[in-house]
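Researcher: Can you fold this with nicotinic acid in place?
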Amino acid sequence: MKITKDLYQGSLALLTDFYQLTMAYAYWKSGKGEQEAVFNLFFRKHPFQGGFTLAAGLDYVIDYCSNFRFGKEDIEYLSQMKAPDGSPQFEKGFLEYLSELKFSCDIDAVEEGTVVFPNAPMVRVKGPLIQCQLLETPLLNILNFQSLIATKAARINLAAKGEPVLEFGLRRAQGIDGALAASRAAYIGGCASTSNVMAGKLFGIPVSGTHAHSWIMSFETELEAFEAYADAFPNQCVFLVDTYDTINGIKNAIKVGQALRKKGKEMMGIRIDSGDLAYFSNQARELLDEAGFPEAKIVASNDLDEHIITSLKGQEASINVWGVGTKLVTAFDQPALGAVYKLSAIKTENGIFQPKIKISQQSLKINIPGIHNVKRYYSNDKAVADMIYLENEEINPRGTVIIDPTDPTRRKRIMPAFYQEEDLLKPIFKKGKAVYQSPDIQKIRERAQKQLDSFDKTHKRLVNPHLYPVGLEENLHHLRMELVLQAKKMENGNA
Ligand SMILES: Nc1ncnc2c1ncn2[C@@H]1O[C@H](COP(=O)(O)OP(=O)(O)OP(=O)(O)O)[C@@H](O)[C@H]1O
Ligand SMILES: O=P(O)(O)OC[C@H]1O[C@H](OP(=O)(O)OP(=O)(O)O)[C@H](O)[C@@H]1O
Ligand SMILES: O=C(O)c1cccnc1
């Protein structure tokens, strides 16, 4: 999918915070623009008080970086920008530099559909400071949102326990682009289809739907409306039964189903969109079964989310298909993932990357210095722990200890020889050239499912999930501690 071409007709370079451009200008002016740096994109806490996050959005990032350039109109726009004193905001030389800028970074990232955890890099960008800096906002914009919605979708699908979840969110989504990105991410997270036809066309997602109350209301009677719908779609009708009286609606659906059957056709089912969904779905199941329609599906919708679905399952509701809109595509209970993008190393004059630390009053916010990758260890296809390690460091095959970056008392011994392992950050761009081809969306969705299956259910429960172990390899932990002490000493020395 070519997001830049199909949706934005060209360059997206100005889809950034103004401060990225002012910093880029200042880097250029101070001669630091080409200095090599490393930045990591990561988040600090799972959304929805959950125990996992599902990464999504990399295909957009690839498209963004592949088309990264400042077009003629972009430069024209920047050249007429004025500083508060009325002088041009940017020097001509800088604008010329931008107009000739070619993307040349290395990017390593987790594949879409990977389950990811706090503090571990989801994306690592290595390249000239100016380019790394300019990528901050768009990368966060893309990955924060799609990962958030993919995670919400995964939670909703886990609650539905394998029954299809139809995504109905377009009318309530955050604008046009938010809706499209949400439909894509929801599909990656496990939804069976979207009601958004454009998302179907752009991303190759299955499209499905039923009909609205307006269809029923446009006829004199509900029965006539069902009959006319059955005429139009004899093999795929799902009747919305709650416009007037739900029980009577179910009976009307059965009448039309019986008429269809005489013609050798079969109704697919009914949809209930209001009232007590447990009560009405159970009544519907009884009536449908008695009338000889045990295969007819019962679709439920109306402000559903993972918690209501879990509750309805606990009440033994007879619902087979779940229509979910608003609470999925708006990530109703948590509006943003909160991933950040931080510098972790910079190349010095002697050509060596120097790890960088930022100490903070909150220990949670002290970054992880250096150039890392993340290893996931598996035992019999079950994920057992993730280890963030310095990429050039040999891991002791006889064993190492991983240390929780937010609580050094939490440690776990890892014996690599006993496990299978996977490096989660894969090369995506090398010196600006794409070296990775995004799988098609079906494959991404399958990966998400396989990844979720590889985690114990205790990490996936909706309430108070069990913490999955993620830690720093001991050498990285020691480097971090050393740099923190050095920084503190400098701080005290300066005080
Ligand atoms: N048995 C149930 N257990 C838990 N939650 C339910 C049950 N039945 C319905 N719900 C949920 O309760 C909420 C009901 O909301 P609301 O009162 O707005 O619906 P309603 O009475 O059907 O009216 P409307 O037609 O305006 O949607 C919805 O979120 C719905 O999914
Ligand atoms: O509830 P959601 O999860 O967002 O799912 C989509 C909703 O959109 C439709 O109705 P709409 O809300 O437009 O009107 P209605 O509820 O008054 O029928 C549909 O009938 C669902 O109720
Ligand atoms: O197809 C449906 O039933 C549908 C689509 C959008 C919103 N609500 C329901």
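Model: Folded with nicotinic acid in place. The pocket of adenosine-5'-triphosphate (ligand 1) is lined by residues 274-278, 302-304, 308, 311-312, 315 (CB under 6 Å).
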